[in-house]
Amino acid sequence: MGSKKIAILQSNYIPWKGYFDMIANVDVFVIYDEVQYTKNDWRNRNIIKTKNGLQWLTIAVRQESLSQAICETLVFKTNWTKKHIGTLQANYSKAPYFSDYKDRIFKIYENASINLSEINISFIKEICAILEIDTKIIDSRSLNLTGDKQERLVQACKQLNADTYLSGPAAKNYIDEDFFSNHQINVEWMDYSNYKTYNQLHPPFEHRVSILDLIFNEGPNAKKYLKSYT
Asked: Where are the beta strands (DSSP E) in 45-145?
């Protein structure tokens, strides 16, 4: 049996390039939205560049309870799609490839669900198609995971016949690599440093903006700015 690598992550709204680099680095990417929705995080918002500096694009959502899962989180206002389309149009219309990709992106807004997780996943899948990332994307709920945080991760690896788990660096404070190795699973860490800069509007350059910034500015060359591209 060949080596198989997976990653497990919550969905984010139009994530930054590092998120897609992680997807491109694995064979199966598991969207883990059955966990608690966290406020003031990346689940329902992201950053774009404007001539006045960085600006948040935020989807207003209802938080009915603290235990509410991301996949249970619903949009609070219906007019957010028009606002976000307008903001992207105002700030990226002069980007070299905006006109080439805007219809594909705006169509997702026009067909948006009221469920945050579904909105995020629809963007993630379309952006993967634009970047020619063919990683299989699945919902963690299809795996029926149980136990504590680490046990669930190991279960997911076993169910998907994976021998390598790729984790974001923020998990270093809770991942027990020995626990994984006891189950014959190797842990690898995603490195988000040393990305190449690209032709970005409105200097100074900022890496941690939505992937849309890279797509609108670099178009078909966007994938070359991911480390996974060879």
From this structure: 45-50, 53-58, 61-62, 74-75, 136-139
